[in-house]
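Changelog entry: the CRISPR-associated protein Cas6 C-terminal domain-containing protein record was regenerated in this release. Current contents:
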Amino acid sequence: MGIPIEVIESELVFLDEGRMPAWPGPIVRGTMLRPLRNRLCVLEQDMPDYCRGCQFNATCRYGRVLEPDRLMIDGHVRMGCRDGVRGLTFGTGRLDSPGGRVQPGNRLPVRFLFVGRAAIDLKMTVFETLRDVSQTATLGADHIRFGVDRNSIRRDSMNIIPDGFEVSPSQRDERVSLRLRLHSPLCLKSRSGQPRRETSRSSSRDFSHRRRYGSDAASIVTVPRLIRESLRIVRRVFDEIDPDVKWNDTAMFLDECLTLAERSEIDVSGLRATRQTRGSARKKARWELAGWIGEATLHDVPVIAIPWLIWAGVLGVGDSRNCGAGLWTITQLEMNQN
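Regenerated structure tokens:
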């Protein structure tokens, strides 16, 4: 027994010339959200700007999948994460367009990730909405019209199961070298270094304080950090998407894995910084989204961390995961046994 996952990829075709950001993931998500809310929200009128605090959040098909409020669903908040992990995320590749301009006929790969049965049940609604949106909506500040290439649709189904994270005792001391290739920006926040008591937790709606990024990849993108982020998203998927799936708690595993990862090294010379402006129509705010793209080489990585890294690359990690950020694939380069 596990949690079903479906990845559906397609391509959008631009019908006009215009400017587009290098990574249009947030724009595609923003274009889809309001029409989906109109179709799925149980409130036919007087819909609030956000689903947080809505008494129907636990049963509403939109709220539970796209804007889950763990306090309304569970009656309590785990690990300080009231905004639940999204069961449906929208992602895009990066555009390689000269001067940041697209031409008619240029294509944009899009990726829809459905995690859990409630999200998968929305597949037909999502693609009906995409079809309708492509006929009426536009993308970006230049209002670029687009179409959907239905012949480009590709589907992949999988299950994330607890047994997939077990490693035999004979493998616990093994280490590998990995190539991590990013498919979308990896946006990790740096830590302020201030004592916790001086840095009060800001509201998830406070855009002036939430997003603080480091500019030095070597100090932010470390092997322990990647492992920690991987365990965090996988653990949240198990705990929030389907709590009935039984699996071992990761607290002890995390300590062991991070201790082993202290010897790991990472070559970030293949990463480069990326920055772009992101906005929220509902909040009427804009901010800078910063991260890294490219690839990194990880050396002496504990084998026990590999399943977590693989699934984190499918699910997405870090800031703007709901727009498809933090996606990667890993390839094993060599095996070393101690």
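The radius of gyration is 20 Å.
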